[in-house]
Write a structure and sequence with these properties.
Helices cover 34% and strands 21% of the residues. The strands form 3 sheets. Strands 9, 10, 11, 12, 13, 14 and 15 form a 7-stranded mixed beta sheet that branches. A 4-stranded parallel beta sheet has the order 2-1-3-4. Among the domains are: 62 residues, 2-Layer Sandwich (Dna Ligase, domain 1); 114 residues, 2-Layer Sandwich (D-amino Acid Aminotransferase, Chain A, domain 1). The longest helix is centred in the N-terminal third of the chain and has 14 residues.
């Protein structure tokens, strides 16, 4: 297979590129950030999607015309811009992604909760707020609350009065709108777990569940470990079958004493790729499972050493656990001994984060947002109609 992997700056994109390359596929990489680590992988032979979507699509189509390609594999939210222009892409290659309508239904956390309820899945009681005043009233409904925008990612913009992020975001910083309302839910105690699936036309062919023992600013993971939680596969299968999903599909859950709650959906790859064995990934991607689902085993670990180093400096109180993780034999996502150039190019790529922080400030959210803000999709052009409710579903 010849594949074009887009959004190649992401750590799980470089993992995807390497997996495909190690399994004998020919891989091209694409990103608006010239220094994106994935672009410099030895396994890999444009414009910013959010800021210049039409040029981005033209660049992709130009590549496909010049380099015969079997499949375009998105890595992040550039999938929305590709799916919206599917007719321009698919004469040249398969776009490994569902329809734009399915993507937006699952990406919007509000509509995803409604859809999950229709499927009978376990979700926390949810209120929607389309203004700061409604948000304040909704939060009063729960002694311990957890609120976030319908469009957000990477654990940014979380407003809560409980846990390690209590007070990190203040009400005055929250700006709900009818186009991007905020979800308010009761704060759930438990273990954060995530899943990543490869899906072909409604059938889950490969699946892995994972946890992140260490995180960056109590948000995105920087150490990952695979586990086995059967409920995550059940949820992935239900959603995939109900939507006819085609592509890579990821979920976040909260495992509590009362069961496993679905928190949100990421209709794209996530860090689960890094703990999915190459053979599992390849069989799932090439649909060789004969109708079954290949499930990744527990106990596979990966880490982001640069993020661990940062945590040791910025959060010195966590130095022992971060140092232990850094010194462990857990493989680093970027530092593949057979493919070292991406390890060094990540330092150049992080210059984008510094540039964004100098422009917008030095908050926790900016640290995460700066790296992928030109790849994000926040519902632009979607005429969704929402009704803010004042009682728990």
């Amino acid at each position: 297979m010849r594949a074009l992997v887009t959004g190649s700056r992401l750590p799980f994109a470089i993992e995807q590129i390497r997996k495909l390359g190690r399994m004998g596929h020919e891989v091209y990489a694409s990103d608006a950030l010239w220094s994106a680590p994935g672009n410099h992988s030895r396994f890999a032979a444009g414009a910013a999607p959010r800021h210049a979507p039409e040029q981005f699509v033209r660049d992709v189509v130009k590549h496909l015309r010049e380099h015969p390609t079997d499949r375009v594999i998105p890595s992040f939210e550039e999938v929305f811009y590709l799916a919206r222009h599917r007719r321009q892409i698919e004469p040249h290659a398969e776009l490994f992604a569902p329809s734009f309508d399915v993507l937006t239904r699952l990406h919007d956390k509000g509509s995803m909760v409604s859809f999950a309820q229709e499927l009978g899945l376990k979700v926390a009681p949810t209120l929607l707020a389309t203004s700061r005043e409604e948000l304040a009233h909704a939060c009063e409904e729960f002694p311990r609350f957890f609120a976030r925008p319908a469009y957000t990612r990477g654990g940014v913009s979380l407003y809560t009065n409980t846990g390690p992020l209590a007070g990190a975001v203040h009400l005055a910083e929250c700006a709900p709108t009818p186009q991007n309302p905020w979800l308010v839910q009761p704060f759930l105690d438990g273990r954060d777990i995530c899943s990543h699936s490869i899906v072909h036309h409604g059938q889950v062919t490969a699946h892995v569940t994972y946890v992140h023992p260490l995180t960056l600013e109590h948000a995105g993971g920087i150490v990952f470990e695979s586990v086995v939680v059967p409920e995550t596969l059940r949820v992935a299968r239900l959603v995939a079958e109900a939507t006819g999903y085609h592509g890579q599909l990821s979920f976040d859950f909260m495992e509590t004493e009362d069961g496993v709650y679905l928190v949100e959906c990421n209709p794209r790859p996530t860090a689960g790729l890094t703990v999915m064995p190459d053979a599992v990934f390849d069989d799932g991607m090439m649909n060789r499972t004969g109708g079954d689902t290949v499930v990744g085993p527990a106990g596979v670990q990966r880490k982001l050493s640069l993020a661990l180093l940062r945590n040791m400096v910025v959060h010195w109180e966590s130095l022992p656990e971060n140092f232990a993780a850094l010194a462990s034999k857990t493989p680093d996502i970027y530092a593949d001994p057979d493919d070292l150039v991406p390890l060094f190019s990540q330092f150049v790529a992080y210059g984008k984060v510094l540039q964004h922080r100098l422009k917008h400030g030095k908050g926790r959210s900016d640290l995460m947002q700066g790296y992928f803000e030109d790849l994000t999709y926040d519902g632009e052009g979607v005429a969704a109609v929402r009704t803010a409710t004042r009682r728990a579903a």
